[in-house]
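Re: Re: ligand-bound prediction request (bumping)

Still looking for help on this. To restate: I need the protein modeled with cytidine-5'-monophosphate bound, output as structure tokens. Inputs repeated here so nobody has to scroll up.
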Amino acid sequence: MSATSGEVVLGVGAGIAAYKSADLLRRLQDRGYAVTVVPTPSSLNFVGAATWQALSGRPVASTIWENTEKVSHISIAQQADYFLIAPATADLIARIAAGRADDLLTNLVLASNAAMLVVPAMHPQMWSNPATVANVATLRSRGYIVMEPEYGRLTGDDFGQGRFPEIAKIVSQFDAMTGNVADFTGKRVLISGGGTREAIDPVRFIGNRSSGKQALALVRAAAKRGAQVHLVAANMDTSQLGAISTTHVESAAQMRAVLAEEFASCDLLIMCAAVADARPVTTRIEKIKKRLLTSIELEPNPDLLAELGARKEHQILVGFAAETSDLIDSARGKLVAKGLDIIYVNDVSNGAIFGKDTTSGIILTRTGAEIALKEVSKDALANVLLDYAIRQLG
Ligand code: C5P
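Reply:
Sorry for the wait, this slipped through. Here it is.
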């Protein structure tokens, strides 16, 4: 595997398990990740900077007062695709939960939107302390993946939950987060994206602001995970996609026809497209003269997703919604009404989601899970949605 799996910050906290992260670093490199190690200052008591420098082949700093000319706390954050914080001590988790920035690692966490995997290791008493329990819940509510420490013997004679998990388990959890797995091999994934356009006349249409960026992220993530992907693209730029099977459509009616044909053979439908809610009753063949363009009579479009939800057999259905208020209630209603397994509701209350590379919202599943995501990349959301979908696909 070449070093193309992504740029990783390996954050090392001050736990005795820090020495195990030297092996973790090696395994990440074997899997094609490029890794910058950022130890906390007190973790250097366990493993020194020279070890990390030699193993990673990169400079290592633990405070923002080193290499200040490079403004490392921003430049490393911008470069990172993923964070793996292992081991994470109770103190480090508390500092991240509180939004502190008192060393280089916590500065980076604060300055980044990258996907984060946190691997705690601490004494069982500290792990079960209500303060740590609350801090871990805070991180999870922000979309961080926090692994459960293992049961077993601790550094002293004590026994309980707090051990650093096996390296192989950490690596497979990390691969699942980054999409560096082939868990969709043999699965057919149908994805709709972009926004439909409903023609008024040969020149004008009713459209919406969907850019198709989230659909592109889903296509890339599903294909990377081994899926056979078909994209139904409504008025979006697919020039960067390469060899993905794609059907271009313009209107909701055209999208409906393509989906109707492709649906039977898919295992997973991700309906990311913004389908226009209504269309002109008639489309003029000739351009309407400016002085006559005073009103347009509309009729509702059929709900494509609800139609497919009613006819689904083995398929898993994922819907998207955009709301400005009552996010959870309205999304839960749509989940049921449209026969969905998973829905992601974008929080568009500040109007800033369209065309951006990040997203904030809530994932709801038929099985009752509720995950809030704040300013995560659209690539990270794609992988989290695929994680939930593959669990339901079995
Ligand atoms: O009802 P609302 O538009 O919020 O639902 C959003 C979900 O339903 C999206 O997944 C969208 O693609 C789908 N939808 C559809 N047909 C419509 C309207 C929305 O498939 N006419």
